[in-house]
Amino acid sequence: MPQDAAALRETLSIAPVIPVIVHDDVSTARDLAEALVAGGLRVLEVTLRTPHALQVIEEMAKVSGAVVGSGTVRSPLQMGHSVEAGCQFMVSPGASPRLLEAANGVRIPLLPGIGTPTEAMTASEHGYSFLKFFPAEALGGVKVLKAYASPLADITFCPTGGIDMQKAKDYLALPNVICVGGSWVMPADAVAGKDWKRIEALAREAARLKG
């Protein structure tokens, strides 16, 4: 089946910012997730870029209110692992035809990444109406998504890559943007120092950006 647009819209509408998490410490995974959820950012994307990412996902999925998904999904194998780990959605950096076809057999929705109109059209032809725009800032940011609004009017984006608090406001003002992905709410020094209160405060600030 093509992308479950209704389920993905519901997930992407929960909060204006989705924390993009690169974390490998299983022992602090729940603490980090609890801080983000307490601040109002319930949708968490844990990237599959670290050796223990799947275990981190399993721990974060135990947090009440958390909606945990996997990021940097690039293969059918990773899709299967995502389901087994308890993910509720998946995010990929790109949208290869093989990956889009493989997602048809997976019971959780995929948010594929695109960087050009051709890639967006290809994903749309496969039944996708919600797409990640990545890497957003490197590809032209807000100006590009403004340009996409008319010719790609049936597609809604979640821009990710190089976005901070101020830039997030500009993206969220666009009618074809449903939310943004970012890591600024989890500064490396705060995570290393286990400063969960600071992360919760940053999350709360980000959660107020829209709605």
Give a structural overview.
The chain is α/β, with parallel strands linked by helices and 211 residues long. It has a single domain, classed as Aldolase class I (TIM Barrel, Alpha-Beta Barrel), CATH 3.20.20.70. Helices cover 41% and strands 16% of the residues. Helix 6 links the parallel strand 6 (113-114) and strand 7 (130-133). It is globular.
Q: Could you say which overall geometry the principal axes of the C-alpha atoms support?
A: globular
CATH class: Alpha Beta
Number of strands: 9
Give the amount of beta strand, in percent: 15-25%
- Terminal-residue CA separation: 31 Å
What is the mean pLDDT? 96
Q: What structural class do you assign from the helix and strand content?
A: alpha/beta
Helix-strand topology string: HEHEHEHEHEEHEHEHEHH
Q: Helical segment tally?
A: 10
Judging by the overall fold, what is the CATH architecture?
Answer: Alpha-Beta Barrel
Largest sheet entry: 6 strands, parallel
Low-confidence segments: none
Q: Output the CATH homologous superfamily.
A: Aldolase class I
Q: Might you state the CATH topology name?
A: TIM Barrel
| Helical residues, percent | 40-55%
